[in-house]
């Protein structure tokens, strides 16, 4: 993989502007110089299809991963909550079954 760099020119207002560059001049990871194994995987992250994974595209991937981790935490709590609900329902059904069995027993002895 090839990482290349270009200096950004400062405009009149003091802001940095991005010059028009080729993939070899920009700061980023050149997909073309990567092995075939990495080319397929890195191609998914190259949103503007210019052959270079730049800082904005890396930031987008990191943001996506952070959101995915947050969702995993939410799913974990939902799964734990559902498990607790199932356990409580099983306990309630067991208790109701036990109460019905106890009520249906014949407990009076008749004198003969």
TrEMBL record:
Domain of life: Eukaryota
Region (Disordered): 1-26
Key words of the record: Membrane, Transmembrane, Transmembrane helix
Signal peptide limits: none
Domain EF-hand: 33-68
InterPro entries: EF_Hand_1_Ca_BS, EF_hand_dom
Biased composition (Polar residues): 15-26
Segments traversing the membrane: 77-101
Molecular function in Gene Ontology: calcium ion binding
Family annotation (PROSITE patterns): EF_HAND_1 (PS00018), EF_HAND_2 (PS50222)
Protein name, UniProt field: EF-hand domain-containing protein
């Amino acid at each position: 993989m090839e990482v290349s760099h270009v200096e950004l020119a400062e405009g009149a207002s003091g802001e940095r502007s991005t010059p028009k560059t080729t993939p070899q001049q920009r700061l980023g990871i050149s997909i073309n110089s990567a092995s075939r194994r990495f080319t397929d995987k890195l191609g998914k992250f190259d949103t503007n299809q210019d052959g270079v994974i730049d800082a904005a595209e890396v930031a987008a991937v990191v943001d996506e991963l952070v959101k995915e981790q947050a969702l995993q935490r939410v799913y974990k709590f939902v799964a734990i909550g559902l498990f607790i609900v199932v356990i409580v329902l099983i306990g309630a059904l067991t208790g109701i079954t036990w109460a019905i069995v106890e009520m249906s027993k014949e407990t009076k002895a008749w004198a003969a």
